[in-house]
Structures are given as C-alpha cells and as structure tokens.
Amino acid sequence: MSPRAVDILPIFYTGVPNLRPYQLATGKNGNPLAAGKPFIHNFLPTLGDMLRLNMAVPATPRNDPNFSSLGLVQAAVLGLTNPTYANPNLQFIPNMDGFPNGRRLEDDVTTIELQAVGGVVLAAIGLWYDDFTPGVSPSPVTAQLGGVLGFNAGVTKNDTTLKAGFPFLQDPWRGFLGNQYVGPQSFVPSPTQPLAATVVAYNCNTGEITFGRTGGDPNRAVEYRAVGVMNGGYGPATMRTVEPGVRADPNTRNIMVMVRYTNDPMSEATTTFNFRAFCASARLANEGSASLSMQVMGNPVTTDEVMVQIQGATGEALRLQVVTAGGLTIGQQSVGTAAERENRTVKIGSVPGVYLIKASTPTSSQTIRVVRQ
Predict the structure, then answer these.
(1) In terms of Cα–Cα distance, which of 316, 325, 300, 296 is closest to 308?
(2) Distances (CA, A) of 279 to 79, 205, 258, 275, 325
(3) What is the C-alpha to C-alpha distance for residues 103 and 12, in angstroms, rounded to an integer?
(4) Can you name the residues that pair with 37 across neighbouring β-strands?
(5) Which of 154, 202, 230, 359 sits most deeply, having the most CB atoms within 10 A of its CB?
(6) CATH architecture designation of domain 280-372
C-alpha cells in the first residue's frame, strides 16, 4: 500500500516544499489548492526515510511561552489560530524548528507521527475534517480535529532533565539495579542514579520486612507498596509484615516491592525479594563446624568492604564466598594454605541489604550474616 501522496509521503519521505498546496490554510479562502501562508521548506528530491532540517529556520527559545514538544504540528496550530500569525505573510512561527523539520531533544516524535497519520496535516493545508461545514461551523477546529490534536502517545515528559551543555543528553540509566547485582565497579547512590527499591531486613520467624531505597533524589520523599504484605498499598511506612497465607504457601517465594516518589506514578521502580532463599541462607548462617570460626570486624557495616577473621582452618585450603539475600554469589576468594588466624578483606555489595559470607574448608564450613547499611 502506498502512503498518502499528499501528506504522509512528503512529510516523512521527501520533505515538504514551501509551495502550493503545502502552505497553511490561512489566506486560501476555502480553496486548499490555492496559495496560503508560507510554511516550512525542507524538501529534498532524494527519496528516503531521513531527518531533514532547514538550517535557515531559527531555533525557538526554550523559555518562549509557545515552545512545544509537538514541533511542526504546534507551529501549524499557531499559524492557523494565533492572531499574530493570522495573515498570509512569511513569518517565523515558534516550533517551525521542530520535528519533522529536524528533531529537537524535547520533541514528542511518536505523538507527532501518529497525529500526522490521523490527518492533522491535511487539515493544516485546508482539507478539513468531515464534520466541518464552511459557512456553518464556527471554526475549522471541529470535534474530530480537536480529538486528533488532543491525542498523545502517553509519555508527555522526560524522566530526567537535559544537560546544560553538549551532548545535552543525560547519562543512561543503569540497565539493572537491585540487591542481586553488583557491577565491576561499586557505585554510590546519588541523584544521577535512578530510584530503586531494596529490602533492608527480613524476619523469617515473624514475617516482618523492612524496605529501603537507593539512588534517586535524596531530597524527595518516597512511598512503598508491596504485593503479599499486610497494608501493602502505597505509604511511607518502611516496616510491613508478609501475609501469613503467603508465608504458609510453599509455592510462593517472591515478594514484589515497589518504590516511587510520593504521588508520582511515573517514578515507580520494582524489585523482587526471594524470602524463601533468604531464610534458607539464614538457617545456614546458624550452622557450621565447631572447629571453624569466623568473625566480622564491625556489623552492621556502612562500606562495601568488611574485615573478617577466620580461625580453625590451619593448614587447609580455605574458600570465602559472598552471597546476596536472594542466593546469588557475587564474590569469592581462595587461600591455598590457611594460617592459624586468617584476616581477610572481603568485598560485599554496595546496595544496602543483607549479605552472607561463607567460609569453607574440605572438612568444615561456617556462614555469617552481614548487614550493609
């Protein structure tokens, strides 16, 4: 199927010439084929799906009250409805530098393209919608046209700010953030990191669970929600209790924990906490060989490194493992022949939560739990 030759093809495939019938309907006196108000000219005879930019069009200042993310669509609306531009003269109309005449970072490309498919460009050049009757309808902006102009693709703002200088785009969000992963380099939660939820503590006997946050804007209050906990709706309380039925069901293992800035649904972030794996690991933390002992120098800790002292492994091969509350091994180190007293620096995760450090030899093992604040 060929695209509509009068609008879709020139908009996205050749560019639009400042010629009849592509000028605005202002001044056409009801004849869409007549000359109208001069508009954008970014025509190139080469067929291709590419960005075209008329460099002669000045940029619209970001503080201009008419600045809009709808680009040329909003420029056309202003050219047809704003008294300043309601004349057949050549003028720079705000947003004529917007998509599809180039693309500004703020431009809502998806909405603009869908509005174009909906026929908004045809209306701009004087081919009005079917519910417009010349001489009868008070305005060409009828209910049908208004419905297209009022449409948006659902994302009406960026999820962060733009930088003041080149390249203007913010650094990308981390692809994965949670207490199950630590990247090759530790990070310090800061406003440049996205908001994320974490589980700080869980009581396997009572089901009491404590939520926490990492990243995001530390000056903004947050609220939590969790599926499978009592009073699980959004609220500021960090301490909740897992429902008895959830704990009793052997097929249920995970609790979904969500955090967001207060009353800001677009900022929601989700993490999964496997309380079954956590409790299984916690039981291991209370087990071990009487001949092998391990002690953490300071617990809870506030850094991603802890000092541990191991005794009872003299002359044996010693292995240390760091495991998250979800059961994921995130670090390990080995000692070929252990001394009577081994002092080792162990790197744990940088995300607040509970970590398990396991020391093992061919004959014994010991596990301790470390709380990272």
Answers:
(1) 296
(2) 66, 9, 21, 6, 8
(3) 13
(4) 24
(5) 359
(6) Sandwich (2.60)
* 176-190 pLDDT, tens digit each: 544 444 433 333 444
Structure tokens that stand for 360 in this block: 């093992």
- C-alpha 310/C-alpha 186 separation (Å) is 25
Q: Please, are residues 299 and 343 in contact by the beta-carbon 8 Å criterion?
A: no
Task: Residue 227: name the closest of 243, 213, 211, 203 by CA.
Answer: 243
Q: Extract the tokens encoding 86.
A: 């309601």
Q: Where do the domains of the chain lie?
A: 1-157, 196-276, 280-372
3-state secondary structure of 72: helix
Tokens of 136: 């009868």
Closest by CA position to 72, among listed 46, 48, 47, 108: 108
Tell me the C-alpha distance between 142 and 177, whole Å: 48
**3-class state of residue 84 by DSSP:** helix
Query: Would you say 319 and 364 are in contact if contact means Cβ atoms under 8 Å apart?
Result: no
CB 347 within 8 A of CB 311: no
Rounded to two decimals, the pTM is 0.47
CA distances from 150 to 70, 144, 282 (A): 11, 10, 55
- Band of pLDDT at residue 3, cut at 50, 70 and 90: low
- 334 with 317: CB under 8 angstroms? yes
Residue 130: C-alpha distances to residues 12, 85, 124, 149, 156 (Å): 25, 25, 14, 15, 29
| CATH placement of domain 196-276 | 2.60.40
**What are 37's two structure tokens?**
């108000």
Dihedral sign for Cα atoms in the order 39, 45, 49, 55? negative
